[in-house]
Write a structure and sequence with these properties.
The mean pLDDT is 75. This protein is mainly α. Helices cover 68% and strands 0% of the residues. The longest helix is centred in the N-terminal third of the chain and has 39 residues, at 3-41.
C-alpha cells in the first residue's frame, strides 16, 4: 500500500466517523426531546434528566413502573464487558438483552400512561434506536473490511529483514571467562 493509498484510507475512515457522530447526535437529541416531553406528560418533575445518559434510563424505568433490578442488569452488563473471562462476556450479553427488554417495556408503559400520546412519538423512539443500531453495524462492517486490507499488506520496502542468528556477528568470545568486545 502506497502512502497515498494509506492517506486516502485514513481520510475515508475519518469521513465515516464524522458522518456517524453527526447522525448519532441527531438521533440522541431526538430521543432526548421526545423523552423529555413524555416525562413532563406523566408528571415527572425531573424531566431535564432526559439529557443525562444513565439517569434518563433510570427515569424511563421509573416512569414505566419497572423494578430497580432492570437498571441493575444494565449496569452489570456494562461492567461485565470489562471482565476478561468468556463466561462474563456471555453473562454481559444476557444481562444486556434483559435490560433492553425492560427498557423497551418501560417505554411502552410510559407511552400508554401519557395522555394524548400519538404513535409518532413512540415511533420516533423506536426509529432512532433502529437507526443508531444500523449506524453502528454499517460503520463497524466498513471499518473491519478496511482492517482486513491491513492484514494483507506486504512488508514495507524500506524495512530491513531481521538477520538470523547464524549471520549475526559475535562481538566477544564466549569461551573466555571475562568476555570483552573484540
Amino acid at each position: 500500500m502506497t502512502p497515498v493509498q494509506f492517506e486516502t484510507l485514513i481520510l475515508k475512515q475519518l469521513a465515516h466517523l464524522g458522518i456517524f457522530v453527526f447522525l448519532y447526535v441527531v438521533c440522541w437529541v431526538g430521543q432526548c426531546i421526545t423523552l423529555q416531553k413524555w416525562l413532563r406528560k406523566i408528571g415527572e418533575e425531573n424531566a431535564w434528566g432526559a439529557w443525562v445518559p444513565f439517569y434518563s434510563t433510570w427515569l424511563v424505568l421509573k416512569g414505566g413502573d419497572k423494578h430497580w433490578w432492570w437498571f441493575a442488569s444494565l449496569i452489570l452488563s456494562i461492567l461485565f464487558t470489562f471482565v476478561p473471562w468468556d463466561f462474563a462476556q456471555y453473562l454481559a450479553s444476557l444481562l444486556s438483552v434483559i435490560a433492553d427488554v425492560g427498557i423497551i417495556w418501560a417505554y411502552f408503559v410510559m407511552w400508554k400512561k401519557a395522555p394524548r400520546q400519538g404513535w409518532f412519538n413512540f415511533g420516533w423512539i423506536v426509529a432512532t434506536w433502529v437507526l443508531t443500531i444500523c449506524l453502528v453495524v454499517v460503520v463497524g462492517v466498513d471499518v473491519f473490511k478496511d482492517l482486513k486490507a491491513y492484514e494483507t499488506l506486504p512488508p514495507s520496502p524500506s524495512s530491513s529483514p531481521i538477520p538470523s542468528e547464524s549471520s549475526s556477528p559475535v562481538p566477544f568470545d564466549s569461551s573466555s571467562p571475562n568476555p570483552s568486545p573484540s
